[in-house]
Specification:
CATH architecture: Orthogonal Bundle
Order of helices and strands: EHEHHHHEEE
Oligomer: single chain
CATH superfamily: Winged helix-like DNA-binding domain superfamily/Winged helix DNA-binding domain
Structural class: alpha/beta
Strand order of the largest sheet: 2-1-5
Number of domains: 1
CATH topology: Arc Repressor Mutant, subunit A
Strand content: 15-25%
Helix content: 40-55%
Length: about 120
């Protein structure tokens, strides 16, 4: 597996970056994050201890469906579905439809690296 590099950026910062890339004014360097969280709080929520445990169970047990994952974790299927969709939106897992339309989650990365500048570049002395 690989390391997913993530960053923290406000909606306005992400919009400005996206527009600059679309206009050809800016290119992302290979070491720059490709996935962005809107706040450190949202990053912490998505990667809480419980959710990291969920990712570990997916890797170790490889359940073939949300029903199987619910049985392994004791979590409700609706809760798992919502959590996994959020994780999929951030590129942490892939959700695949298998036999009989059952959805199974696959963990894509084994590490996350957070790029979090403490001071904005234009504010640095």
């Amino acid at each position: 597996m690989t390391t997913l590099k993530v960053g923290i950026a406000s909606y306005d910062e992400m919009k400005a970056l996206t527009l600059a890339i679309a206009r050809g004014q800016r290119k992302l360097a290979p070491q720059e994050p490709r996935v962005w969280f809107p706040s450190t709080e949202s990053f912490a929520k998505v990667l809480s201890a419980g959710n990291r445990d969920l990712l570990r169970i997916i890797v170790e047990k490889a359940p073939g469906s949300l029903e199987g994952l619910a049985q392994l974790t004791g979590r409700k299927k609706s809760n798992l579905s919502r959590t996994l969709k959020t994780m999929a939106n951030y590129g942490l897992v892939r959700l695949d439809r298998g036999p009989r339309g059952r959805i199974a989650a696959t963990v894509i990365h084994d590490r996350i690296e957070l790029d979090l500048p403490l001071v904005q570049k234009d504010c640095a002395a």
